Amino acid sequence: MLENCLFCKIIRGEVASHKIYEDSKVFAFNDINPQAPIHIMVIPKKHISGLNVVLEEDEKILGYIQVVISKIAKRFPEMKNGFRVINNCGVEGGQTVFHIHYHLLGGRIFNWPPG
Ligand code: AMP
Ligand code: ZN
Question: Is residue 14 scored above 90 in pLDDT?
Answer without folding.
Answer: yes
